[in-house]
Q: What sequence folds into this?
């Protein structure tokens, strides 16, 4: 007799009250089918990628700019795609929390993207709750009353196209175990979302399962996503290639293979997105072995930096050449309800950035707050006066034929940075430490996106700070404070800064603050830079409630 999923699958925290709705047996059956088909292949893929990243970091794999392959002898385009995805001028993103889902769907954006990857702290209630909120919202019966706000929240109509960003390959869902081991978070998100929503999306909303694909480094990973989605379509008896994807370009390596990746995904690809924050993080991580990191600290880095301009233009050109949308990235300036001055400032910053993107030729952009939807819609409407996009535009003047043009701060031939007199300002080190500490504190308490100093903080923005702190500390970066002579940023000095910044955070929850401090200290003093903060952070997130 076959084992039922309830016999094979164990839950670390026992049965949550949302299990019945979110994880009925038929959904777990679908998950197990995917798990059995892909889990081992996924583990191998991740191991191979780790080896490849190590080799790249040792300078054993040469980097190249994205270049059309010989397939271009027969010019090709991505498949035409649904009419309802032609207009994507404003896309609002939010973690799939109850209030955000309602507000995002009611914000008037062309697309709502629910982000399970960078914006959600993956506690078990958050993950189950996130799927539950989407199930209810897509059925147009997500409603509740907020007693503090004295406000009724309800999704009545859906005029936005719905995407989710599942968790990236390599992430585990540690609350659900098969044969005693954590399952893949990607497979979990794909199976649960498609199982519950495919029929309603297609039959009631005229949409389909649409996914944003995050943090892919290699062509092999892109192919793997394609295989998983094809298999899922077969299981649900959905037409082949009807599950559409937008690929977030956010890694140095993916950028260099972007033509090949787009070709591999061409039957289901409907856009490329500029994952600028993760891309900066990837640049910081991948070039860390150069003598010092000359890339400016995250808080001083502007979108005008030439390597970011080159990044944007590559995405725009490749997308448009292949007939798909180019979607601009996220400005992290965030309005504050009830703070008109800050809001005015944030909106003006976002408008200035999005106007430049629209003028360059982008077809739309992400926004991170409902108050940004109308201003950004206007930026694009002023430029795109005919039709819904501007896919016919290319940027001839921004062709990059060499890696020096993509990464102008590195002298690839000599294997060094162009200058080595970069001295980090102590204020930047303090800023980076403060952002990490506050983020880890909130994340450990279950919040994965928040506004701090008028900026949105999510995993991707904070990862830049974390990686830069590691580099500065481990390469004994010279640090200056005012007019004093520079000192080497030794680990002891780093720890002292982390300690002082922790002391400035006022909270009654001393235990979580201590956890956040220790997490940052451990992350910055590891001999090898961890690829993601999750390597140390996820094992300590809400696992103490185990009741197997
Ligand atoms: C680089 C990247 O990875 S970007 C992609 C992932 N990032 C995200 O998804 C982050 C999206 N943004 C957010 O989560 C939020 O804007 C935050 C956390 C940064 C700030 O939110 P808040 O502190 O609640 O802002 P504020 O107090 O101004 O919110 C006002 C109202 O707007 C709502 N709101 C704010 N941002 C969003 C959003 N993105 N989607 C839906 N509703 C939102 C709030 O829920 C609040 O609703 P209410 O008035 O009904 O209570
Ligand atoms: O995921 C988006 C980014 O900017 O990073």
A:
């Amino acid at each position: 007799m076959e084992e039922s999923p309830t016999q094979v699958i164990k839950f670390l925290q026992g049965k949550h009250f949302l299990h019945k709705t979110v994880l009925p047996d038929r959904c777990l059956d679908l998950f197990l089918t995917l798990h059995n088909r892909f889990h081992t292949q996924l583990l191998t893929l991740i191991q191979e990628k780790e080896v490849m990243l190590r080799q790249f970091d040792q300078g054993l794999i040469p980097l190249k700019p994205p270049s059309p392959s010989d397939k271009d002898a027969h010019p090709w385009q991505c498949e035409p795609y649904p009419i309802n995805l032609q207009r994507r001028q404003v896309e609002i993103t939010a973690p799939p929390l109850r209030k955000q889902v309602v507000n995002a769907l009611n914000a008037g954006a062309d697309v709502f993207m629910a982000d399970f990857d960078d914006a959600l702290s993956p506690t078990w209630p958050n993950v189950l709750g996130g799927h539950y909120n989407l199930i209810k919202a897509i059925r147009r019966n997500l409603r509740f009353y907020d007693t503090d706000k004295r406000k009724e929240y309800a999704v009545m109509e859906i005029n936005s196209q719905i995407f989710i960003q599942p968790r990236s390959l390599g992430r585990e869902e540690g609350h659900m175990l098969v044969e005693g081991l954590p399952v893949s978070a990607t497979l979990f998100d794909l199976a649960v979302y498609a199982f519950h929503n495919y029929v309603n999306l297609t039959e009631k909303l005229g949409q389909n399962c649409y996914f944003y694909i995050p943090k892919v480094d290699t062509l092999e990973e892109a192919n793997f996503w394609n295989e998983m989605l094809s298999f899922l379509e077969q299981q649900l008896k959905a037409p082949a290639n009807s599950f559409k994807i937008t690929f977030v370009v956010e890694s140095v390596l993916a950028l260099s293979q972007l033509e090949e990746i787009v070709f591999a995904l061409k039957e289901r690809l409907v856009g490329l997105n500029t994952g600028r924050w993760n891309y900066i993080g990837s640049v910081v991580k991948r070039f860390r072995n150069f003598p010092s990191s000359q890339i400016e600290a995250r808080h001083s880095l502007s979108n005008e930096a030439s390597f970011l301009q080159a990044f944007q233009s590559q995405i725009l050109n490749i997308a448009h050449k292949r007939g798909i949308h180019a979607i601009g990235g996220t400005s992290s300036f965030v309005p504050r309800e009830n703070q008109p001055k800050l809001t005015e400032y944030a909106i003006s910053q976002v408008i200035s950035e999005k106007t430049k993107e629209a003028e360059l030729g982008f077809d739309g952009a992400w926004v991170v707050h409902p108050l940004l939807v109308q201003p950004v819609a206007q930026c694009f409407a002023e430029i795109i006066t005919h039709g819904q996009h501007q896919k016919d535009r290319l940027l001839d003047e921004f062709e990059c034929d060499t890696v020096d043009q993509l990464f102008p701060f590195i002298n690839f031939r000599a294997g060094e940075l162009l200058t080595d007199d970069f001295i980090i300002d102590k204020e930047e080190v303090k800023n980076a430490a403060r952002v990490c500490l506050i983020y880890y504190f909130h994340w450990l308490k279950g919040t994965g996106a928040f506004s701090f100093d008028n900026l949105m903080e999510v995993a991707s923005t904070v990862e830049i700070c974390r990686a830069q702190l590691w580099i500065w500390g481990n390469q004994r970066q010279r640090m200056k404070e005012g007019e004093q002579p520079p000192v080497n940023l030794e680990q002891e000095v780093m720890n002292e800064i982390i300690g002082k910044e922790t002391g400035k955070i006022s909270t009654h929850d001393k235990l979580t603050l201590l956890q956040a401090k220790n997490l940052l200290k451990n992350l910055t003093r590891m001999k090898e830079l961890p690829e993601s903060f999750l390597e140390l952070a996820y094992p300590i997130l809400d696992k103490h409630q185990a009741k197997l």
About this structure: The chain has two domains: 9-61+85-386, 426-547.
